[in-house]
Every structure is written in C-alpha cells, then in structure tokens.
Amino acid sequence: MKASDTLINDLAPQKFGRKGVIWTTALIIISIAGIIAYIDQVIKGQVVTNMNDYALWGIYISNFVFFVATSFVGAVTVAVLRLTDNAWRTPIVRIAEIISVACIIMAGLTIMIDMGRPDRLMNLFIHGRMQSPIIWDVIIIPTYIVICLLLLYFPLLPDLAILKKHFSQTHPKLSKWYGKFSLNWTGSDKQKKIQLKSIHIIAILIIPAGFILQTVDAWLFSTLFRVGWDSTNMGAYFISGASVAGVGALVTVVYVIRKANKLENYITEYHFDKLGKFLVLTCLIYLYFNINEYVIPEFTSKKEEVTHLNHLYSGQYAPLFWFVIIGGLVIPIIVLLFKKGRKPLPMFYIGLLVVVGSWWKRFLIVTPTLLQPFLPIQGVPESWHHYFPSIHEWVITFATLAMALLIITFLVRYLPIIPIQRTADEQEATKTNKPLSS
Amino acid sequence: MANKKTENGSENRRNFLRLGLMSSVSAVAGASLISNLATGEEKKASGEKVRVLTPDGKMVEVDAESINNYPEAVITPEESRKGIPDKKFVMVIDLSKCKNARKCVEGCQKAHKLDDHQEFMKVQLMQNNEEGSPYWLPKPCFHCDEPPCVTVCPTGATFKRDDGIVLIDNERCIGCKFCITSCPYSARTFNWGHKEKFDDKSQPYSPETQVPAAEGTVMKCDFCPDMLRQGKLPYCASSCPMGVIYFGDKNEDIVTNGTETVSFSQLIKDRGGYRHLEHLGTKPNVYYLPAVNRQFPVERGFDVDEEILDRYKDVPIVKEFKEQGKL
Amino acid sequence: MRTKIYTLIFVALAFLINTKSFAQEVNLKNYRVRFGLSTTKQADNSRKLEVSYIASNKKDRKDRVPIYGADINFYNVTEDKDILLGTAKTDKEGTAQLIVPAKQAYTANAEGYINLKAVFDGTDALDSEEDELAIKDVFLELNLKEIDSVKTVILNAYTLDSLQTKIPIDETEIVFSIGGMISNMPIKREFVSDGAFKFEFPEHISGDKNGNVDVFASIIDNDNYGNVIQKKNIDWGINKQITHETNKLWSEAAPIWMYVVLSILLIGVWANYAYSIKNLFDIKKEGKELELKSQNEN
Amino acid sequence: MENNSTNNRRYFLDNGLKLGLAAIIGGIGFSKLASKLYGKSETNSGEKMELMTTDGTIVEVDASEVVEVAHSQDHETKYNLREGMPNRKFVMVIDLAKCKNALKCQSACNKHHYITGEHAWLKVYKMQEEEDTAPYWMPTTCMHCDHPACVTVCPVDATFKRRDGLVLIDNDRCIGCRFCMAACPYSTRVFNWSEPDYGEASEVVLNMNMAHEEHNSIEFAGMPSKIGTVDKCDFCPHAIKEDKLPHCVTACPNGVFYFGDKYEDTVTNGDETLRLSKLLKEKSGYRLMEGLGTKPSVYYLPPVNRLVDFKEGLSEYRNYNSVEKIDDL
Amino acid sequence: MDVIKRKKELVQEFSPMLEKSTKTSKVWIAFLVGVILVGLVAFVIQVVKGHIVTGMRDNVVWGIYIINFIFFVCLSYSGAFISGILHFFKTPWKNSVSRIVEIITVLSLIIGPIFILLCIGRLDRLYYLFLYPRIQSPITWDIIAIMTDLLGCFIYLYLTFIPDFAMLRDNSENAPKWRQKLYKTLAIKYYDTPTQRETLHKITRTMSVMVIALAIVAYSVLAWIFSLTLQPGWNSSIFAPYFIIAGLYSGVSVIIIAMYLIRKFYHLDHYIRKVHFMGAGVILLIISLLFGYFTFSEYFSRWFSHKIEDVKLLDTLFNRYFWNFIFANYIGVLVPVVILFFKKFRTIKSVTFAAVIAILGLYMNRYLIVVPTLESPYMPIQDTRPEYIQYTATWIEWALSFAGIAAFILFFILIMKLVPIIPMSGIIDHEREQKRKPHLSNNH
C-alpha cells in the first residue's frame, strides 16, 4: 500500500510552481494578443495579412496542416503501441493523447482563421457539397476530435477515481469534479471489462481515422492541378510526415513535463531510448518519401516541375528547404542513430528541431507551389511575387501555438499525466512476474 | 537572241536552276559524284535499281549504289557520335499545308529500307478537343534537347550529338526497349523479328543511315545525317510535294523546304510556331506551325489506301465524317 | 587499303551487275529527247557548263529516263571555228558538267556575246544532239561596307566591251542571299538598273560561330547573262555562342552527384560484404586451429 | 468604335433569341429601354433622359425613376439563375493574332464590374512559350470550364456551373476558403482581401446597389464585391441577358474577342459574325492547357500572321498597374 | 554434452526429409522438369525467330516478361526485407519461417532477372551493359542493385546455413560420401565455439541490416524504372513505396503458401504451428490494408484530377480491363482483408486461401500497371494491326513464365533436400535461450 501511496503522491496533478505560473501567464498573454489581432483581421478583412491572389494560402494553412499532422501522434503512438502491446508505452501514451487532443482542437480553430467569411461558417453545413475535399475535412476533423477525446477519457476513469479519493481531504471541490468525471468508477470487473473493450475499439478506430485525416488533408492539395501538389504520393507522404511531427512534439513535451513534474523515476532514459528509436524510424520513412517526392519530378523534369524544384533547391526557398531537410530530418537521424543521442537532453533538442523543421516543411508545401502558377504572375504589385507573413499572421499563428500549449498545460495541471492505475498494476505485475494483459 | 531554249517547260528548269544555284554545298557534292563516276571506284551494291538509257539506246536497270556513292562510308563511328560541327538542326512542319499525301513516309521508308508498316515518320490525324479542328500531324522523332530516351539508355546506344540529332547505334543496342517506353512521342520502333534485308552487309552499317538494320534493336527517325553531310535535305522534306517540311540549321537561322528558304525565327514568329507537348520539358527540335487557313480541307487527306484510312477510325471526326457520308 | 577493298568489291560487283542487269528493248520513238545547255559563272570566275540530257515518254509524262554515260563535248563557237572546251559524261541524272577554269579566255562576237555549244555526237541508236547558248560575260562586284555604321551591301554589275570599258547592266533581276548549309536564304530581289544597287543589310542574320556570313549576289537564268554568282564573306552575323551541355542526365558523362551517391552506396555495401567474408575466414581459421589442436591431442 | 456597328453589337443575339428572349422580355421595345437605361446609368445619373414608353410616346424622365420601372418589371426570375439560360452554351474565342495589348478590354471590365484593388479579372499576359517561339499577348478571362476544377472543390456550392456554360460565384454564400483559387490552373480568381474601396463615388455605389437589387447578385458577379469572398470574370450574364455582348468584347478596338452560343454555332466580335465551328477549323482554335482536362469554354486562335506587331503592345505593358479606383472611372 | 545430443536428435529428425524421396515427389519433380523443358523449347524458338514470336509490339514493348520480373524481384526483396527484420529484431517465431523466407529470397532473385533477359532483344550483347555502362540509366541502377542484392542475399543465406551445415557434417555418418564432403566444405570448419558463434552472430546481424537497406534501395530502383519515365500511368512519386508494400504483400503471401505446402508434405505440424499462420495472417492483413491504401491513392488522385492522359488511361482500365481491374484491385485486396479481419475466419486453410488470392490479385495488379499504360501513350495509337494496338501474351511467353515458376519450385525442393527447412541451429539457440529465461517461453 505504501508503494501505491508514493505513486499517487508522485503522479497526482500538482499546483504549478512559479515557473509554471509565468509560463501559463505568458501563454495566456500571447493568446490574447492573437485574439485581438484576429478581431482586427475580421474587422479589416484579410488585407492585414500578407496573403494575395497568388499566395492565397499562407501560414494559416501551413499552421493548420502542422496541427493536423502533430495530432497524428495520438493515432500513431496510442494505437500502434497499444495494439502491439509494447511494455514501455505506459508513461508516454497519455502525453501523446493530450498532444493529439490539443492539436486537433487547434487545427479545427486555425482553419477558421483562414476563412474569409467566418460569419458564414454555417454554410458548410447548410450548403455542404460532398464532392469537395474541404467537406471531407469538415467531417473528419470533428470525428477525430471526438475519438481523441474518448481515447484520452476512457483510460482516465480509474485514475480519476483515485484522484477523487486522493483529493477528498485536501481539495474537496476538486475531488468533487474528479468524482463527476470518474463516472462512479469503482474498478469492478464489469466496469473494467466495459472500459477495456471500449479502449480497444477506440484504439482500433483511431488508426483509420488518423489515416483518413492525414489523407484528406493531403488531398486538399493533391486533388488540385498545381505543380508540387498534384502527386499521387501526397497521402502517404503526409502520413509519414505527420508521424515525424507528432513524435517530435511528443519527445519535446515529454521532456518538459518530466522536468517540470519531476517524473524522472517514471519516465526513464529507457523510455527516451525507445522514443528515440521510434523517432528515427519515422524520420527514415519520411526521408524516403521525401526522396521519392523530389527525385522523380527532378529526373523526369517536366517543364513546370523543374521551375518549382529549382525554386526549392537553389532559389529563394533554398535556405529554408535545406534547413528542413537537413535540420529537420538528416541531423535527427544521424544523432538518434547513436545511443548517446538518445539521452533525454539531446533528445529534447532534437525533438524541438524536428518540430520546427516540420512546421517550416508545411510552409514549403503550401507557399512555393502557390507562387508557381501555370500562367506567369504578371500585372500585379511586385510584392505579390513573394510571400512572407505579416505581423498579424505571426501574432495569430503564435497565439494558436500558445493556445495549443495552453490546452496541454491545462490538462497537465489537472490530469495525472502518467496513468496511475496502470503504473501500479505494472509494478505489481513485475513483482509477481506475471504478464500483464492489456 | 542567240541562245536557244529547249522546249521543256522553261519554268521547270528555272526552278531547278534556282535551287541549284541557291545551294552552295551541293555543287561541291555534285562534283564529287561526277568524279566518283568517272573513276568508277568505291562501288557497292544494294537492292535499289535505277533505270537509265545508255548511249547505245538500251534501257538498263543498274544498281543505284553502283552509280551513286555516299560519302558516309568514310564517316567514322566517333564522327557519327559527335555530329556535324557547329550545327543545330531543326525541323519546322507546316500543318496548314499537310494533306496526308504520305510522300514523306514513303520517301523515308525507301531511303531507310523500311517495311511497309515500319514508319519513322508517321502521319497522325489529331483533334485536340471535340470542337477543335482535326489536322494531319506528320510526326518524326523530335530530337529533343532533353531526350528522356537517351537518359534511360543503359549502354549509350542511343545518344545525342552536338548538332542536336538523337541517333541510335544498333551495334550497341541491347534491345531492352526502355527508350521506347520513355519516349512520350512514340517515335521509336523495334525490329521484332528477323528479316532478310538485315543480312545484306553490302553497305557498311552507320548510325547515320541505320542501314542495314539489325534484329532486336531499336530504330527511329534520324534526320538523315548522311544527306545533311552532303548538304541535302532529309528524305521526308525533299519528297514532300506540298513543302510541308522545312529543315535547317538553327545556328544559321535558315530553314528550307526545297522550294523556299526562309529565316527560321521569322517563320516561327509569323506563323505562331509551337512544339508538341511543350509542358513535358523535353524541348523538342521539331516545331509545328498551326493549321491556320489551311490549303486543303482535312477530308483531302482521306484520299489514301483503305487500310491506312482504317488507322484513324477512332478519331471522333472520322466517325462523324462517316456518318455524314463524306468518306 | 580501303581503296583496295573497294576495288575488289567493285570487281565482284561489276560481275554481278553484268549478270543481273538486263537490256530492255525500247522503242525510242515513244521518247522525246531533251538536250539543254546552261551555264553558270561561279564566284571564283570559273564557269560551269551543264547539259541535261533526258528522254521523256511522249505519252506518260512521268516516265523520264536520263541518258547515262553519254559523252558531251563543249565548245566555244567563234566565227571561224569551234574551240573545244572539254568533254564530260552524263551521270545517272542525265547531266554532264564541265567546270571551265577562270583563266580560260573566250572569244566573243561583235555584240559581246560568247557563243557556247554542247554537242553529243550521236550513236547508232541516238541521234546527235546540239544546244547552243549565247551569253555576255557579266562581272558582279559585291562590296560590303559599313557606311555611317549602317551595314550596306553594294553591288556593281557590268559587262566589258571589246575596249574593256565597263558597261553597266540594265533591268536585270539580281537576287541577294545569305549562305546556308542546305540552301541559301534570299534577303533581297531587285531589278537593277544602271548596274548599281545598294541596300541596308538586314538585322538578325545569324552567322556561323564566329559571326561570319556568306553574302551572295546572283543573276539567275538570265537570257543575256546565263547564271552568275558572286559571294563575299563578312562578319556581319550575330556572333552566337554555341555551347554544348555536359553532365546532364542524357549526356555521356553523368552529373557529378550521381557518381558520388553511387560510389558511397556501393562502397558502403561492398565494404560490408568484404568485412563479412573476412570474418568467415576468421571462423575458418579458428576451426582449423581447433582441428589441429584436437588432432594433436589425439 | 464605329457607330454603325452599335446596333449589331447590342442585338447580336436577336436572331437567336427571338423566340426565347423576346417572349421573356416582352417585346423588343422594352429590351431597348432596358439596354439604354443600363448604358446611361453607369455614366451619369440624375440627368433627364428620353424614353419611349410602351404606348409609343416619348417622355423625359429622371434616370433613377427609370430604374424603378425596370425593377418593377423584374424579368430575371424568368430563368433559374443557377441553371442558366435555357438551351444556350456560351463560348468565347480570342484571336491572339489581333491582340496588341491595348488593354481596353481590361479597363471596360474593371469599369463595369466596379473592380477595385490590385488584381483585375481580365488580364493580358505577355507570353512566350520558350526562347525560340514568338512572344504574344494573351488576354485571359475566366475559362468557364466544362470540367471546372474550382467548382469541384467548393465546399458550399458558392461557385457553380450553369447549364449555359457559365461558372459563377454566389458571393452571398462564399465562405472565403480560397480552395477554388488554389484549384484553378488559370489563376483567374481574385479575392477581396479588404472591404472593396469604392471611394467617394456615392452615386456609383448607389447605382450599383440599385443594380444589385434589380438583378440577382449572382448575375451581377461582384456587385458589390464583398470582403472575404472570391470574385472572377463572369461572362457578364447581365449583359447577355439583354442581348448585349460582354463588356470586354464591345470594348476591344481590334475585335479580338468573339462571343457567342455554341448551339447556335455563331460568334461575333461586334463587327463580324462568324460560324464558330468554321472559325475554329480555319484558324486552328485551341484551348489553354488542354492536357489538364478542364475543357474550357474559351478558345484561342494562334497568333499567326499577326495584324499588329507584338512590339506595339509593349508601350502599354506595365509590370503592374493598380486597378483604377471608381473615382477615376 | 546435452547440446551435442540434442543436435544429433535434430539431425535424425530431419534427415528423412533430406534423404528419402517419395514417389509423389519424384513425379512432381519430373513434371517440373517437363515444364522447364517446354520453357526451354520456347526460349530456343524465341532466340531463333526473334521477339516476333512474343505478343509484344511497338506500343506494348514490355509484356509479361517484365511483369514476371517485377513479381519475382519484388518477392525476393520482400523476402530479404522480412528475413532481415526477423533476424534483426530476433522475432520469436523466426525459426519456423526464416529459412523458407531466405530460400525464397535467393531463388526468386535468381529467377527474376532471367525474365528481364528474355525481354532483351539482343541477348548476345548483354555484356555491353558492362562495356558501355551509363550510370544515368535506371536500368544500370537496377543491374547494380540486383547484383549487389544477389550477392548480399547469398552471403546472408550462407551465414544462416553455416551452423546447420556444421551440424549435418558432424552427424551424417550414414549419408553418402558426396554429401558428407559437401557439408564439410560448406561448414568451413565451424565448430560452434563461443568466439565463432559470436563472430557469426555479429556478421549475420550487420548483414541483416544491410539486407533490409538493400531491399529498400533495390525496390525503389525497380519502381523508378517506371516512375522516372513520362508515361501517364507510371510517372508517379508513389511508386517506390507502393512497390515496397506490393512486394511485401506478395512476399508474405508466398511465405504463407510455402509454409502451408511444406507443413502439409513434410508433416512439420510441430514446427510450423497454427500460431504462425495466425501471425502471418495478421501481418498480411496489415499489409493488404496498406496495399489497398496505396492502390486507392494511386488511382483516386488520377481519377479526381482528371487530366486528359490520366482519363485516357483510366478509360482503358475501366473498359478493356474492367474485370481484371476489379479482380486485381478489389477482390485481390478486399477478399484477403475480409478473411483476415475477423478472428473467426482465420484458419490455416483460409489464411492460405487469402494468400493465394492476394498473389493472383497482385500479379494482375502488376499487369495492369505495365500493359494498359503502354497501350495508352501520349500520341494516339493509329494503327491497323490489332497486335500493335493490344497486347496478348503468346504461348511462348506463357511457357517461359510457367517454366520460371516451375524452376522456382524445383530449386526449392532441391534445396530442401540439402538442408532442413527448419533451421536446426535456430532450435538449439532457442532452447538455449529458454533455459536462460524460462518465463519468456509461454509467449511463443
């Protein structure tokens, strides 16, 4: 019993320290700034952005694609690790689920920022056309949000019950909320059975849902004629890219939470090692898709493709492109292939690098293609030949990122970030040397 | 007037002379021909016969090669890989003049000793869209500046020369057919089976003539470099009765169809020249002039063999014509 | 060596032809024979005499048979005698050509006409043929000058009378053209009067790689002058940089990066193979030692 | 342009539409009235104008009143706006041999559609496929494709294809996702990044609003333009309906644009009326980017034996010309 | 010692399989040799008469030879891939399948390239590939990749065979002389000492990684032969991963079929157990889903963007090849998915059935990738000769194809006569492991 007490003490949500408060406040401030900027944008129109008739999608869409991609981590880690019954997943899965939830919610919100007429949102439902990939997106994103929430929620039930008990003395109010959310969880066999079955179903469901989400997202681009988008590869490319972004984000967040909540005993170097291997695998696959995506048009050298690729390889996007490829993929692969590179701190930096690289990668998918239309760009202001986001766009984008972090922070604050019940069970199991059934 | 004119249409002769005079190189080539004849050296046989009248009044059929001699015999394989120095050959095909007379196809087939069905030059009936007007498209090899066929060849059997011509060395071709699949213009053909004429070794093989062909190798239009070396037009251009095919050197900026010689750039500019499937980025060296104000209605082109006509049965306009009873 | 082989081939072929070729009895009455002489004064002042000797079927216009191997004699006809200029045989197209060198002096008649004659002496089967031509010897002076930085083509055309005074020619069509590989491109056609003409050289004429162009001035098939060609070479063309691309995917040498990638891949893989095989030998070595040891023990 | 062609131009569809439109509009007289009205209202307002009433008397009325009358006789409901005019299929033929970048088409289009901002609907491109082919001027309108990629991807059916060939935008429904812009390979669509700046020209705005009330906004694409929505060339259905040619066609001094009905097989540039099929056949008409399979309704005639030298257009060519503000029109 | 005794036991257990030949197997071998002979006759005809005897013509210049080539080579790569993974990750049930996989790998890598040779017009000039190599050509890449891969697979296969050869050498006193000698040479004095075992283990492991990497490269190069051309159906950046998945699909299916047949004819129920079929079934399910996904992506984006060339291709596919298309891309994917998805349906027989369907579907899929694309080029085919418009394989091509399959099976049987199909060393290793960590046993 003693062991489980320390366990609960260690893992129960704690109040933030000073750093935590500063962090939260900063996020809130950035978010508010973003909201103000957005209101300004609604009033003045998107003229406050630097988008134009050629670069008609800017970092809003890139950011949206990034969020969608990152949210894939839920599907990847949760489902794949859960179904393959990997023992090391326990302390990591919930963080992944939280990231997924935060990102997919923010993805749903950011896409609205890009809408010219957010007031007509309802038209999507009133006049929705099944033929349009956007409607597919409209359908799949809420679905995915719900699945993500459920996948987060179901395994939480036992923990919430524990927390209700745990906080019943110190924070009765909190305890009451936990109680409400725990749905009278007692841990009876019947409840357990239902819970396990539900988790299993959701875990299976989230894989196709995640795949469809990424694919639909890819089809937003690949169903169009534009050079650089019109590629049969896009769906698989996005899926592999999403795994990289998601796992990268996961590594980063895990490191921060481990540090902040002092969970070194639960999230050990062993976990980082495994995560590192996982990340390097995803990176390798993504690199492979990248090679295919760029080498084939380069080799067949169709006229428009060549111009487009030259822009990326040696034109104005070259620094960014090579940063994304080398910094976002090659360096992580090299570092993570070594055992020393899979220690927590280097992993954190690599994770950060991967996330930043992934973000810019989305920018490179969206913008250069738009600036390379079939008919030449003529008769428009010089500034329309290029695109770089305006202050408004940056503020709003950062605010969305801050909001995503805020959601994560909020969930970390109020939820046990490492499943208490399961950890306890596992400890029990290793003691008695019995295999644990999922 | 002291000079006497022969009766035969002076117009004809005038044209003939004009051309002769316009040509600087051919005069030299002609001279060499004479000398060859006089010495009677370097004679080879081939299947082709020419009918002449001897001074003793006999009509004699002699082997063409025995009284004709191409200088390609002295072209070394290295030279044939390099090309004619400082040239860049282009062809311009005026679609408004083509009436599917198929003389280019026949001329080409005869010169390259091709079978009836093996065509380096194909005349295709094209219709870009349902409303678009149908037109006859003579289609040689495009001798692209970014030739996908050359890129994929594993042995360098097909190669691009400095003068822009893409040739095949059938002594090096291993017959993997990759070049055929990579050519977006379907310009290449394959020697599927064995034929007797492949054994005729009387003429030494050169990539510039592609004669004799070899079984299991790839062939295609070659812009007739053997003729170019003599300063003459490729066979398709010289045999076209309508003057559809202009040929020349892009560096010189001069193209000719045999009867008129014009500036290449001016012709392209005035007549809206374009290249086929430009967006593939292959950069062909064959330009087309759109079929604007065409000289013959497209129906005139159906005045060919029933069998050839049958090729175009899938083109929508042919079906339409058939319904209207025009065919 | 080569010629030897060719002679051999020729001998063999001559035999073949003899057996294969066959004489065909034709009724020559159905054929009308055309025998025509023309002359061209070439740029180096040599004169080309050409005879076209073709029999064509009276009924079938397409049936034209050139007379091959007929001996044609070319004469300069003077009042008293015919001076033989040379002899040539007709080729398979039925043309016989004779190039008379520039130094050949012709005798002209009082009006300044040179009378030229081509004669085929005739055989048992073919009648003798003869064609005569009277032309004046024209001199084309082609000058290419930049006048006030305008590239100008200047032409003077004249004949010489017996006193060697220049008499400008009149109302004669002169064609100016640019030399081309296959055929020359006309740039100007003009009826020249008073024997002189000048015009501005057109822009955008490409030359060879050094920008040199051949400019031709020619009189074509004129009743009085026959054919006359004059040419000058000048660097008025656009100096084109002819570049040949290397290290492209289609060129002989591959792009450098391709060599690099391939070598890295191959070296990496094959090194590993070598390493594995080396280790196999190590295993074998150890096993051998083991065997030796056990043998020794036994 | 020459006066004698005005009638011709305005009533180009007369023959074809006799049965259809004559019945709809209720007499040629009224159509004349409406067209005159329209012609006037854009240039001046508050002015008296002469009109012939249905009983044959000439009256002088204020322009604004006339609009009221026209409005009361709403004839736009006579055909379904989303279905299009019955038994029509509109096509345009652009003769590149005639274009010299005079840009009259563009300014007329800007003027009549009250286009402001940076990107005109109709653009004249300086084109050259590659080094060795000749440069030429290429006016582009919306291609009104028969396989419109933009319509396929619209999530809310704001842009739609009518049976008469027109691809239009309902800017009351557009949510501004710009997916259609990304989908269009011809870069023909523009976005209202900010509230359209019509300037101080209140009269213009007034007219526009009246016109908007008079006609359905779908027919009057972009009148008024709305912030955060997409606009593009609409083939001027408001004009077609009244037997008139689109503004670019009438404005072109060289007769570059031919407009007409494919079923009728006639096109006209105002001066000459030709058989569409014959024109395309003789002049070897083609469509832009045929390989994409979009099947445009706009045909181009290649720039062969040009009437005007390419260079003449260079004097008008600017890298960028802001669309004139309404005030300046 | 315990281990030595166990080794003896194992050799005794497997030796009947190696030595005895039943009547059925003799008939079977005779039949296979017969098929191969027919193939040889066909080959001679083709060499004498030229490619005119095949159904290939100027438009469809690549026929079922190339399809067989892709099929076998993909099979081989996937074998390499799978066995590399089995070794590298020390998968528990590698013992039962790893040798099957390795044999498949090497055999199909030998037979596959033969088909490309059949497709080459001038076999006599094959050495030109080395005389005048152009490394820009994907064919050159492919040749390099295949040769490298072949050698790598040979080395790798040999490495895994060594301990077994050693065991056979030590325990085959009764075997014929040539056999003893063969085993002795092949065992290269391997005595299973700890250092030897260590070295062998180390190089086997690096080779397994190398083989995985090579397989991926070789797959991509193979796919690039198609996707680096401009042909509408081929020029697609998805091809390389698509080929990998397709290869794995065929690989796993062939392994399942081989497992089934071997289990049936050699009565190896003890080693190849139901659990292996179930595992392979789940893997096949996942791969079939992925394969379905890639196929869908490939055709969907073509269909959605309806470019003219793509539409032409899809028209061909949906008209002339309608049933082939349905079979290849619907039945060939969906039937295995349905069978394998539900636990109830997963029996040994049904898993094998699913594998058979998958193989057939995949072969048809390859056919549809190669032939219809060549039948709908950019320039319309305007020809009157039907054989130039449409491709139909002639009996020569079929005879050679079946000869290839027969050769594959025959060699498989012959190899099985040489070494036991279940790696004995693996069993020993496994038992050794078990002793050390007994609790792990109940998992497998």
Question: Mind explaining what this structure looks like?
Answer:
The complex is a heteropentamer of chains A (438), B (327), C (298), D (329) and E (444). With 438 residues, chain A is mainly α. Chain A has 16 helices and no strands. Chain A has helices at 2-11, 18-44, 59-83, 90-114, 123-126, 133-153, 156-170, 172-182, 189-222, 234-261, 269-300, 303-313, 318-337, 344-370, 391-414, 420-432. Chain A is globular. Chain B is α+β, with helices and mostly antiparallel strands and 327 residues long. Chain B has two domains: 10-73, no CATH class; 75-289, Alpha-Beta Plaits. In chain C, strands 2, 3, 4, 7, 13, 14, 16 and 17 form an eight-stranded mixed sheet that branches. Chain C has helices at 2-20, 256-297; strands at residues 23-24, 31-41, 47-57, 64-66, 71-77, 82-89, 95-100, 113-120, 129-136, 138-147, 150-160, 166-168, 172-178, 185-192, 196-200, 213-222, 226-234. By secondary structure, chain C is an alpha+beta fold. Chain C has two domains: 2-136, Sandwich (Immunoglobulin-like), CATH 2.60.40.730; 138-234, Immunoglobulin-like (Sandwich). Mean pLDDT of chain C is 83; it is low at 13-23. Chain D has 329 residues and is an alpha+beta fold. Chain D folds into two domains: 4-78, no CATH class; 90-328, Alpha-Beta Plaits. Chain D has helices spanning 4-10, 14-17, 20-25, 28-41, 63-72, 104-112, 149-153, 179-183, 202-214, 237-241, 247-251, 276-283, 310-314, and strands spanning 48-52, 58-62, 90-95, 123-127, 136-140, 159-161, 167-169, 190-191, 230-231, 257-261, 266-268, 273-275, 298-301. In chain D, a hairpin with an 8-residue loop joins strand 4 (123-127) and strand 5 (136-140). Chain D starts with a helix and ends in a 15-residue tail after the last helix. Chains in contact: A-B, A-D, A-E, B-C, B-D, B-E, C-E, D-E. The interface between D and E is small, with 7 and 8 residues.
Provide the descriptors you would attach to this structure in a database record.
heteropentamer, A: mainly alpha, Formate dehydrogenase/DMSO reductase fold, 75% helix, D: 329 residues, Alpha-Beta Plaits, 2 domains, five-stranded mixed β-sheet, two-stranded antiparallel sheet
User: How many beta-strand segments of chain E?
Assistant: 0
CATH topology of the largest domain in chain C: Immunoglobulin-like
- Helical residue percent band of chain C: 10-25%
**CA-based shape of chain E:** globular
Counted up, domains of chain C total: 2
The amount of beta strand of chain C, in percent, is 35-45%
Chain pair with largest interface: B-C, 78 and 85 residues
Computed structural class of chain C: alpha+beta
Residues in helices of chain E, as a percent range:
over 70%
CATH H-level superfamily title of the largest domain in chain C: SOR catalytic domain
Structural class of chain E: mainly alpha
Terminal-residue CA separation of chain E? 26 Å
Spans of at least 5 consecutive residues with low confidence of chain C? 13-23
**What would you report as the Rg of chain C, rounded to the nearest angstrom?**
36 Å
What percent strand of chain E? under 5%
**The CATH top-level class label of the largest domain in chain C:** Mainly Beta
Largest sheet of chain E, described in full? none
CATH-derived architecture of the largest domain in chain C: Sandwich
SSE string of chain E, helices as H and strands as E:
HHHHHHHHHHHHHHHH
What is the typical, i.e. mean, pLDDT of chain E?
88
Number of helical segments of chain C? 2
